[in-house]
Amino acid sequence: MNSAEFLKEIHEYVEEEYRSFEEYQNIAFEILCEFDRICRQNSIQYYLAYGTLLGAVRDHGQIPWDYDIDVQISIDDRARMLNVLKNKLGKDFYYSYLDNTPKYPAYCIRIGKKGHHFNALHVDIFFLIGCPEGAKEQEAFLKRLNIYCGKRIKKYSLYWFSNPENKVDRIIDKLLGVKYFFISKKKLDKEEKELISKYPYADAKYCCSLGAEKRAYKTEAFKEASQVEINGKSFFIPIGYEDVLERIYGDWGKYLPVSKRFDEFYSMLKTVRQRDHSSID
Q1: What pLDDT score does 171 carry?
Q2: CB–CB of 280/94 below 8 Å?
Q3: Domain ranges (residues) in the chain
Q4: Hey, how many other C-beta atoms are within 10 angstroms of the C-beta on 8?
Q5: What DSSP string runs through the chain?
């Protein structure tokens, strides 16, 4: 084999891997379409979020090297959203959350497609909650939020995810597992309730997602919705999406070097393959 033959082989391999990745993207998009359907039919306002929002407005679709889909709704709509998911979700889909999945390892709702694990392929529904106004107060609140979310994830993540191959990492994981084992679900639920109620979303000038958040947004960015088209279908985005994206990504119109985009694509492909090891029916 010469270098030209090897290069051709590499190209064919990468193309085959990317076609496999696109299949995962298509399933995630199918889940998003189902989510959009039930929200529109039940008058629940949502917004595309994070990389999904970035791809919608910058790339006019899904980011080509990302399959994950994120959306946001008001925390005030959480109970109604859960009721709709229980009663109106299409037969080919399911949701996972604290109310129906023992040892649930996340702080957002996940909608999946039957035949695929919720930790592999899903739409993540994040909740917008109120934040304080002052910069120092915001920093302290977001730090507390991150600590809470870290405890929620680390308490149950080892139950769902395979241990790392590295022996040292396995030992560290076991030690962390012992530490978080003694934090009760009741205590975590109480901590979440305190975070949500401290700055009521409906009255707050700033907000953030109930998650491992790094910044606060102006609530007025979410007071109204605009729409954007992806693959011939319309989805909701916040009217102040430019400010939201700037707070998350800075110069959000720029692209990372192709090496980093490739690394992100390939890392995501390996992750979704590893996690999609069992089905939930």
Answers
A1: 64
A2: yes
A3: 3-275
A4: 12
A5: --HHHHHHHHHHHHHHHHHHHHHHHHHHHHHHHHHHHHHHHTT--EEEEHHHHHIIIIISSS-TT---EEEEEEGGGHHHHHHHHHHHS-TTEEEE-TTTSTT---SSEEEEETTS-TTTS-EEEEEEEEE-SSHHHHHHHHHHHHHHHHHHHHHHHHHHSPPPSSHHHHHHHHHHHHHHHTS-HHHHHHHHHHHHHHS-GGG-SEEEESSS----EEGGGGSSEEEEEETTEEEEEETTHHHHHHHHHSSTT----HHHHHHHHHHHHHHHHHHTTS---
Contact of 88 with 251, CB cutoff 8 Å? no
Closest CA relative to residue 230, chosen from 65, 69, 35, 59? 59
165 — pLDDT class (breaks 50, 70, 90): low
Q: Quote the percentage of the chain above a pLDDT of 90.
A: 76
Q: Which of 64, 65, 61, 69 is nearest to 27 (CA)?
A: 69
pLDDT per residue as tens digits for the range 187-246: 999 999 999 999 999 999 999 999 878 899 999 999 999 999 999 999 999 999 999 999
How do residues 62-99 score in pLDDT, each as one tens digit?
A: 999 999 999 999 999 999 999 999 999 999 999 999 99
